Amino acid sequence: MAEKYKHIETAVIHEGYDSKEHLGSLTTPLFQTSTFTFETAEQGERRFAGLEDGYIYSRLGNPTVQVLEDKIAALEGGEAGLAFSSGMAAVSAVLFALTKTDDHILCSQGLYGCTFGLLQLMKSKYRINHDFCDMDTEEQLRKMIRPETACIYVETPINPTMKMIDLQMVMKVAKECNVPVVVDNTFSTPYLQKPLDYGCDVVLHSATKYLCGHGDVVAGLVVGKKEFINQVAVTTQKDIGGVISPFDAWLLLRGLKTLPVRMDRHSANAWEIFRELKQHPQVKNVYYPGDTSSPAHYIMEKQMKHGGGLISFELQGTKQDAQKFLNNLRLIKIAVSLGDAETLIQHPATMTHSAVPEEFRHQMGISDQLIRLSVGLEAWQDIWHDLQQAF
Ligand SMILES: *Cc1c(COP(=O)(O)O)cnc(C)c1O
Fold first, then answer.
1. Which residues pair with 310 in a beta bridge?
2. 343 backbone dihedrals φ, ψ, rounded to 5°
3. Buried (b) or exposed (e) across 182-197, using 16+ Cβ within 10 A?
4. Active site residue 298
5. Atom of ligand 1 at shortest distance to CA of 111?
6. Which of 64, 120, 158, 344 could lock onto 163 through a cystine, CB 3.0 to 4.6 A?
7. Where are the domains positioned within the chain?
8. What is the mean pLDDT of the chain?
9. Is domain 8-256 in CATH 3.40.50.300, yes or no?
10. How far, in Å, is the centroid of ligand 1 from the Cα of 20?
11. Mean per-residue pLDDT for 306-334?
12. Which member of 17, 112, 191, 288 is catalytic?
């Protein structure tokens, strides 16, 4: 095991890997193998019985994947990490591990579309209920936590409305009520926000987004206490089986090395675009965590390093006007996903959140004119030039 590094800029590069243990290989070797051979039958028996350390089969563990899991655990400041084949595999493995029939999940008002879909499935098939809560005040939370509440599930900033939730405030109430808190940290990454520092119990990611950063992997990551991570590893991960491929883990390790550099640039670019959008006559509203005039800005100041690379904004007009705007773009690509080098734009009401019934969509603040922009790493002037000519 490598040593622990104090600064995240160093940890993303060196944490979890020691070249001395791998014939001096500078980068983590790719163990692209499904299984591992035992020297004897008795060794196989000992490994299955947990009496001897060592690898068995790549659904149960793989050395390349292990480096990634150790690295993300260190970056989030947690005890252990676990890697999945997608962000949704991570979300579902965590939520199924924490709940049973007749339990209740209290969620932030606004969730990733497929997380919303998963909660509907858990409710209709397994009678695991949920409610949405604004989570603006302690009173709101206290009122909605029930004896059977098995966890509080929070996105902050929320996809796609960019609303922020004060994690310190949530944790105060959650601790009083003894309810674990799960945070989807996809939008911020540990470079901008570290939920475990506030006492949150589990943090998870769609690693597909900023952690990968290059648009070539679909993956998920979870960090928490060793005991909980072990429990997930031997139940909802091992037996449902959404494990990451070693190659995808290897690509993620490569992408992670530049996370701080990329996040700084995404944020600096987004700040410039935000300021331009805010002044544009055809833009009705702009939502950006870095907006210093927003009443929620204190939350960003408290728990985020800076505003990140995502902006949502509402155009004047109709859904058709929003679609026409997207069609007019040349440099900026129309695509869901986010956090890539390329600037991406999408229309949540008809894309990422189209499966959410209209009533809930409006409750979440997703109008037909809302557009989500993932500001890339291009020169911000070129990004703005493209947006400007599309109005
Ligand atoms: C993309 C996303 C997910 C789902 O992750 P996948 O890797 O696409 O399965 C979950 N939460 C948030 C906030 C996301 O943006």
1. 374
2. -70, 130
3. bbbbbbbbbbbbbbbe
4. no
5. 13
6. 158
7. 8-256, 259-390
8. 96
9. no
10. 35
11. 96
12. 112
